[in-house]
Design a protein that fits this description.
Mean pLDDT: 82
Order of helices and strands: HHHHEEEEEEEEEEH
Distance between the termini: 71 Å
Radius of gyration: 27 Å
Strand content: 15-25%
Structural class: alpha+beta
Number of helices: 5
Largest sheet: 5 strands, mixed
Length: 285
């Protein structure tokens, strides 16, 4: 009488594999369950390939391991009438060697491919534009050094008015260098669809190099717990045409946001020491 319920539970793993396989055909999950659109920067496809290739290898290993496990369970199961313990083996050198060598090869392979792709993503390149990003509790400042203008952010108030979020403008198909530093504590600069993030330290400059390739609006956030309002340390990213980028630079200059902000909280030239929202441009930040 207990066979039917047991048979039902036995089919659950098969059902789960089928669901995962079929759902993998959708556009949303065709990138290995990673967010964003393909090729949004020159690095995202490399990151996606590393991720998906790793899972393909791991699934293959899992299928072989599970197959061997169920094979042993079924073939060597205790049968009706068996009353003795089956013959015991002390060791099997070929199998033990296999179980040692294969994981070692996998670890070396994963490490080599990860190091190769990481070096490719991190490689310094000659950039068309350099932008300084300054993290602060709990918002962001952007220095557009080529144009000698800045945009200073204010803390998001959680009221759904995302238009007030600081917005980083990037020109499409232009190589960009992002210099990251902090005014107070450790933050982390993360543009979700770029599939890459980097810590932001006080007193130190970290760098990112990439080329935006797909015009659009993207979300960013701090990915390092940095205090009470960490969850509100949000920002937007706009990848725009060269003409729209130049237009935005001109708008910042016309609004009086000329010069460069620093990471020094005691610098009197910083207009952004107050993170609270306000309509006065002098208090912006």
């Amino acid at each position: 009488m207990l066979r039917k319920p047991r048979l039902k539970w036995a089919f659950l793993p098969i059902f789960a594999v089928l669901v995962a396989s079929l759902s993998g055909c959708s556009a949303e999950t065709s990138r290995g369950f990673l967010p964003g659109v393909p090729g949004v920067t020159n690095h995202t496809d490399t990151i996606v390939k590393l991720w998906t290739d790793s899972w393909i290898v791991l699934y293959a290993v899992g299928i072989i391991a599970w197959g061997l496990m169920f094979f042993a369970i079924i073939v060597y199961r205790r049968r009706k009438g068996d009353s003795e313990i089956p013959p015991q083996l002390r060791y099997n050198m070929p199998i033990e060697t296999l179980f040692t060598v294969v994981p070692l090869i996998l670890v070396i392979g994963f490490f080599a491919q990860t190091a190769k792709d990481l070096n490719s993503v991190e490689a310094p390149v000659q950039s068309d534009y350099r932008i300084e990003v300054v993290g602060k509790q709990w918002s962001w400042d952007f220095n557009y050094t080529n144009n000698n203008v800045y945009d200073s952010g204010i803390q998001y108030q959680g009221d759904g008015t995302e238009a007030e979020l600081p917005t980083l403008y990037l020109p499409v198909n232009r190589t960009v260098e992002i210099d990251l530093t902090s005014r107070d504590v450790i933050h982390s600069f993360w543009v979700i669809d770029f599939l890459y993030k980097k810590d932001v330290f006080p007193g130190r400059v970290n760098k990112m190099y990439f080329t935006p390739q797909v015009i659009g609006d993207y979300k960013g956030k701090c990915a390092e717990l940095c205090g009470e309002f960490h969850s509100m340390m949000l920002f937007n990213v706009k990848i725009v045409s060269q003409s729209d980028y130049d237009k935005h630079m001109a708008e910042l200059a016309a609004a009086g946001y000329t010069g460069q902000l620093t990471a020094d909280p005691s610098d009197p030239n910083n207009l952004n020491r107050n993170n609270l929202p306000g309509t006065n441009p002098a208090n912006k930040g």
